């Protein structure tokens, strides 16, 4: 029975081993192995199936050779001690090795301990080689995890779903309103005065027709151009006059021709975002835009029959009621088509981008090694490229739809109210999908929250504008980095202009003082006042710099670098842990010879296996922490945006607010966001530190968080000193420059004045009578 069980388990063990090997194999050219060779020498090649050197080729290997010799001697002493006590216990108790020691496990552990501490390659013992091999296959597992993450992003197009800003029902209702307007007025006039114009592309003021009878005439449309659907007058004003005269002569048998002006029943205008038209994404972007145009065209056609039913019911009470589900069906079909266009484009664009990275393209982040080529160790360097994919796709799907309703010329039609009322009655009784349950409900049963604007005031409105600007990027860190760069650019530009203005005003003041006399005395009050005013303005700006520049520097440079800093600290922590494990491996090997405990491992050696497991899993768990941090920052950024302004508005209340208040709000927001980023990306080291607690392992705190906090303190202190030094330098240079320029100007004026006096004296002598 046992033999059959073993035979059944053998294929399972073999398949598990093959699966393990497939996901933990390491490319010999992997960057991690390249760096490990710097530390441990060519013995690292054993990880990829190579043979290590017979003699040490690294300083750690040479020192390990001596350490292993010492541990070998110490192992012999332990074996001798156990053998001696075992003989004495056997003689005293009558049992082999006595009752204290296991006769099966103790001898086996001693043999294993001797084997593990014996020199193997490059000065390292068998146990040290085992630690390196385990760490190397941990690299392979991390690389497989990283590749799977890239595959997922390629397949889905994004790290997290983009926000689609379009309101499907609002778009459909506006199109239905335009359709009802068109058919209603034509019915009232008994003449086709308003007609549907085909979809058109507006490029360089040239209008190109793209649709006839509801189907696009081209599969790809130009990128970044406006697409329109119009419900326009059939006649111009002059044409309507001619048609009206002809109809009047014949008694209006086909209704009354009229002109209602330009687009009387509204229009649809789609503005696509400006996106890099590089060859890598040109085709998927064009394909997306064509699909979005087609989705709107299909919605327009689907709502035509419903619009006719509404108009018919308005003029004929005996007509059947419009289908209450028709509107919702059209909306759902529109949503399906729109979402499919988005998902297809996301996948195509992300695949193009990531494939470009993987080939070691030098255009990708300035690197000649691709994301897949460098392996797990380069994950932190690709943070902004991953965010760029998300930002790019978010920008692409943010189609600006401008929906114009009926104009005054259409509304002024005597019968328009009849059709408008019929549409209103239908919109109240139609069936719509409840977003909470997914069930069809009456439109009146679905409640919505009204927008609440409490009058935030100038300061809070400015803060709200800044936060909205930050939200223009999917990642709040990227958005706030843009805010920081904007503040720095605006401050530098304004400060330069103020400096030059102050310099000119003070030079003019000093020049007036040097000239003296009637002209100098008359101009001095004006120039002196201007000099003082510009100087105060300059120092007000410097004071604002003391408040804003440290914040802006944190936002523009430090905050975006947080993921990379913590990732580098995590990689450094793993390398430190590996070096520690290799050094401790001979001691760990000797611990197997300790006689205490039952089983193959024994009491003393158990802790080492938990550390080894942590060493194996740490790179993979760090990748989990990295991506989890990216997602957590997105979520917490949205929570912060949701709660910050209401909380600050309540805190400030009716207090007098100004620039200092705005700077304080921005500082608080920056501090909170930095704490969120630090907490989120701290998962890079917290996940590896704490996961093994769930199976009894101790937390391995390698100090990455404290190292990052020290970097932050250095950066903040440096920013403060930079602003302070710049302020003092600006003050000295302003007054010194003004003084030197004014002295030069004064000397020039004095020279000119002297020359003028000398010339006048000569002229007067020549003219005086002798």
From TrEMBL:
It comes from the Bacteria. InterPro entries: DotA_TraY. This is Uncharacterized protein. Residues 1-21 form the signal peptide. The chain crosses the membrane at residues 66-88, 538-559, 565-590, 611-636, 656-676. Residues 726-770 are annotated as: Disordered. Keywords: Membrane, Signal, Transmembrane, Transmembrane helix.
């Amino acid at each position: 029975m046992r033999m059959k069980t073993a035979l059944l388990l053998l294929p399972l063990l073999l398949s598990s081993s093959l699966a393990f090997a497939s996901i933990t194999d390491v490319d010999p050219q992997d960057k991690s192995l390249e760096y490990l060779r710097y530390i441990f020498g060519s013995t690292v090649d054993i990880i990829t199936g190579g043979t290590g050197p017979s003699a040490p080729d690294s300083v750690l290997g040479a020192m390990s050779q001596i350490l292993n010799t010492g541990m070998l001697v110490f192992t012999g002493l332990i074996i001798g001690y156990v053998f001696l006590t075992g003989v004495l216990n056997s003689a005293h108790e009558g049992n082999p090795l006595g009752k204290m020691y296991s006769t099966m496990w103790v001898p086996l552990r001693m043999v294993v301990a001797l084997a593990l501490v014996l020199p193997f390659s490059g000065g390292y013992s068998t146990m040290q080689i085992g630690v390196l091999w385990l760490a190397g296959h941990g690299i392979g597992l991390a690389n497989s995890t990283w590749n799977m993450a890239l595959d997922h992003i390629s397949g889905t197009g994004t790290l997290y779903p983009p926000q689609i800003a379009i309101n499907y029902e609002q778009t459909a209702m506006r199109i239905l309103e335009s359709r009802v307007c068109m058919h209603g007025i034509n019915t009232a006039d008994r003449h086709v005065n308003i007609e549907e114009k085909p979809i058109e592309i507006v490029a360089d003021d040239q209008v190109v027709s793209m649709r006839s009878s509801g189907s696009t005439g081209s599969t790809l449309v130009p990128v970044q151009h406006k697409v329109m659907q119009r419900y326009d007058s059939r006649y111009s004003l002059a044409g309507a006059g001619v048609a009206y005269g002809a109809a009047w002569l014949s008694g209006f048998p086909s209704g009354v021709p009229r002109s209602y002006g330009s687009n009387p029943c509204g229009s649809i205008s789609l503005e696509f975002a400006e996106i890099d038209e590089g060859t890598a994404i040109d085709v998927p972007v064009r394909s997306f835009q064509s699909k979005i145009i087609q989705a709107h065209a299909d919605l327009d056609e689907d709502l035509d029959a419903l619009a006719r039913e509404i108009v018919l019911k308005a003029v004929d009470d005996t007509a059947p009621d419009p289908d209450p589900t028709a509107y919702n069906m059209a909306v759902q079909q529109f949503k399906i088509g729109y979402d499919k266009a988005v998902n297809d484009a996301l996948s195509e664009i992300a695949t193009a981008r990531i494939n470009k990275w993987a080939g070691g393209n030098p255009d990708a982040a300035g690197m000649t090694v691709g994301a897949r080529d460098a392996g797990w160790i380069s994950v932190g360097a690709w943070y902004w490229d991953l965010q760029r994919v998300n930002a790019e796709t978010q920008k692409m799907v943010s189609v600006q739809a401008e929906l114009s309703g009926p104009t005054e010329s259409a509304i002024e039609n005597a019968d328009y109210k009849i059709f408008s009322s019929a549409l209103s009655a239908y919109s109240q009784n139609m069936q719509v999908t409840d977003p909470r349950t997914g069930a069809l409900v009456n439109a009146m049963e679905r409640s919505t929250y009204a927008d609440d604007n409490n009058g935030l005031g100038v300061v809070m409105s400015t803060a709200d504008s800044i936060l909205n600007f930050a939200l223009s990027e999917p990642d709040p860190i990227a958005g706030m980095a843009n805010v920081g760069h904007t503040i720095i650019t605006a401050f530098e530009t304004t400060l330069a202009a103020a400096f030059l203005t102050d310099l000119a005003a003070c030079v003019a003041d000093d020049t007036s003082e040097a000239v003296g006399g009637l002209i100098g005395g008359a101009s001095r009050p004006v120039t002196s006042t201007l000099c003082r005013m510009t100087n105060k303005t300059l120092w007000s700006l410097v004071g604002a710099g003391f408040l804003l520049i440290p914040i802006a520097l944190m936002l523009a440079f430090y905050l975006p670098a947080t993921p990379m800093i913590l990732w580098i600290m995590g990689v450094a922590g793993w390398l430190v842990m590996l070096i520690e494990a290799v050094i401790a491996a001979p001691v760990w090997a000797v611990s197997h010879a300790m006689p205490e405990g039952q089983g193959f491992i024994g009491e003393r050696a158990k802790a080492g296996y938990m550390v080894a497991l942590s060493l194996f899993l740490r790179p993979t768990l760090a990748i989990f922490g990295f991506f989890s941090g990216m997602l957590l920052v997105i979520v917490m950024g949205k929570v912060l945006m949701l709660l910050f302004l209401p909380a600050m508005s309540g805190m400030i209340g009716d207090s007098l607010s100004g620039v200092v208040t705005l700077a304080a709000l921005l500082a608080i927001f920056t501090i909170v966001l930095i704490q969120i980023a630090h907490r989120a990306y701290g998962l890079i080291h917290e996940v590896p530190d704490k996961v093994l607690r769930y199976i009894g392992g101790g937390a391995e705190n390698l100090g990455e968080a404290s190292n990052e906090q020290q970097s932050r303190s250095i950066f903040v202190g440096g920013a403060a000193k930079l602003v302070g030094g710049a302020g003092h330098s600006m003050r000295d240079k302003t007054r010194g420059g003004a003084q030197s320029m004014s002295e030069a100007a004064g000397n020039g004026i004095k020279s000119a004045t002297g020359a003028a006096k000398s010339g006048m004296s000569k002229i007067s002598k020549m003219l005086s009578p002798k």
